Amino acid sequence: MDQLGIPRHYVTTGCLALMGFVLFYLVTAWLFLTLLPASMTFSKQVKSSERERGTAEAVARAKTSEQRPAEVHIHLQDLKLWIDKLNLFKKSRVHILRGVTFDFEPGKLNVIMGPSGMGYNI
After folding, report:
1. Residues 65, 84: contact at Cβ < 8 Å?
2. CA 43 to mean position of chain CA atoms
3. pLDDT of residue 4
4. d(Cα 106, Cα 118) in Å, to the nearest integer?
């Protein structure tokens, strides 16, 4: 091995370096998990009779509440949307929307539609 120029303890050095990386990762992960707050919530399974009763109570509460949520009217005028596509030799701009004006009114169903197959691949 000495004739090939390979250090004498190359396996030991690699193993020690690997153990150092693993130890560093574990200490760093432990520090982040203990110092940064994380909240998780789990929902419990509800029986169908409880679910129906809860739904009825929620509907009754909503009907009796006197405050209605504020209605929002959204108006967008001359909306333009494009993607800058980089090719090997040139930069091109692909227009997705050009000068579109529309209103979203409260209480109405709004649908944005286009020809089949548009926008999946550019």
Report:
1. no
2. 21
3. 75
4. 28
Residue-wise DSSP of 5-47: T--TTHHHHHHHHHHHHHHHHHHHHHHHHHHS------PPP--
Q: What is the pLDDT of residues 11-20, one digit of tens each?
A: 888 899 999 9
pTM of the model: 0.32
Q: Which residues pair with 86 in a beta bridge?
A: 91
Task: Answer whether residue 119 is part of any domain.
Answer: no
Domain that holds residue 91: 74-104
Query: Quick one: tokens of 63?
Result: 């009907």
Residue 44 in this model has a pLDDT that exceeds 60: no
Distance (Å, rounded) from C-alpha 56 to C-alpha 60? 6
How many domains does the structure of the chain reveal? Answer: 2
- The band of 122, judged by pLDDT with boundaries at 50, 70 and 90, is very low
